[in-house]
Amino acid sequence: MDRHIPFDKLHNFRDLGGYRTRDGRRVRPGRLYRADSLGKLTKDTDDWTRFLALGVGTVIDLRHPWEAEGRGRVPADASFTYHNLSIEHRPYNQAALTPDVDPGPYLAERFMEVAEDGTKEIRAALELVAEASEERALVFHCASGKDRTGELAALILALLDVPDETIIEDFSLTELATPALLADWRARNEGRSPTWPGFARAPESVMRLFLSSLRARYGSVEGYVTQALDLNARSLSTTLRTRLLEPTPTTWPDLTYRRATPQDAPLLVRLRDTAALWQLARGIDQWRPGEKDETHFRDRMREGEVWLAHTNGSVTGAYELWWTDPAAWGPRPPDAGYIHRLMTTPHTAPPGTGRELLTHAESRIATEGLPYARLDCLSSNPRLRAYYESAGYRVVGEQRAKDGGSGSPYAVTLLEKRLV
Q: Is 353 helix (H, G, I), strand (E, B) or coil?
């Protein structure tokens, strides 16, 4: 379920595979990676073995040469070539920024500076991606794997015809690595914290503003490639798509289910935070990362049920099942199960996973001899309401001031399904 590939020293190493393009294809898994500094790798360690097992043939280091020299570069190995292409020409110290600096517009402006200062290096990086062997993977990285890496990832994904919402989401996934990146910074700086609260953060507004600015100046990403990089954008895009795209699978393994245990709480937090970032990238302000912690999921397991769905051993979804829900529905007789936090893994769950999770939850409710399945959704989310209605649920009311524990009541639409 997780795009972050686990390493001991690396915190933001991710596969760009699986993202879908507008024409229905997807980026080939295991061919294009983005990462934080590979200078943290050391030979003859488990991390080094994991890295070599990915079959990387090309490494692009986007840092300044003095960063690579001072912090280390990836150890040399005959299995790959190394290229240092510093796309940033005006370095700046994010950690020392003042708290009043808004990350969105500030970083978007820095991204535009990089796009216009680093044309020679960006061009070379895109050419390396296009020329890389189809049988070997390529990884590009900077220090945290966020800004310079995020900008190059955005350009590549746009040329592959991946939708903006997915590009924005991909950028914001660094949020899942922020705590570890901050811990590394503090360890290097005698336990101090950065003065800027936005340090190591990747709010979706940054990439949204950057893409908007780039298009305002050049008309499109292809226009930028043509005008600023002096490349044939159509030819480059065709080459990238030939090398990096594949048809989306038409058949998928069946889902398997198991009841979650307390040891699954960290995984459930990660799944929910990932889903929250997916929503925010699409302008859906319903969930936010960090709102539900491990204690929340353990409480739900103790008071009700939490179920995980798997495909080929990988988590593809989850849901909570409650036996009472007074915050939304008020006092009720014990005649229903209440479905909450229906979650699927973005881009990797088989089509229809959400509907199958609903069906599984309904079967659990029926097994308890209860005649109704109930759920609620934000009144401001008509798309989600329509989804549930298409699954057989009908609107039976509205709770205008549900208290979900955040201290800020909100309106929800109440939906119910009679189980046969």
A: helix
CB contact at 8 A, 54 and 65 = no
Can you tell me which residue has the tokens 């895109």?
A: 126
Query: Taking 90 as the threshold, does the pLDDT of residue 409 lie above it?
Result: no
This prediction's pTM: 0.95
Its CATH class, for the domain covering 14-247, is: alpha beta
Which tokens belong to 370? 């209860």
The CA distance from 165 to 177, in Å, is: 20
Query: Mean pLDDT for the chain?
Result: 96
- CATH superfamily assigned to domain 256-418: Gcn5-related N-acetyltransferase (GNAT) (3.40.630.30)
CB atoms within 10 A of CB 354: 18
Neighbouring CB atoms inside 10 A of 305's CB total: 18
pLDDT tier, 407 (very low <50, low <70, confident <90, very high otherwise) = low
Phi first, then psi, for residue 194 (nearest 5°) are -60, 150
Alpha-carbon gap, residue 396 to 409, rounded angstroms: 20
Whether the per-residue pLDDT at 405 is higher than 90: the answer is no
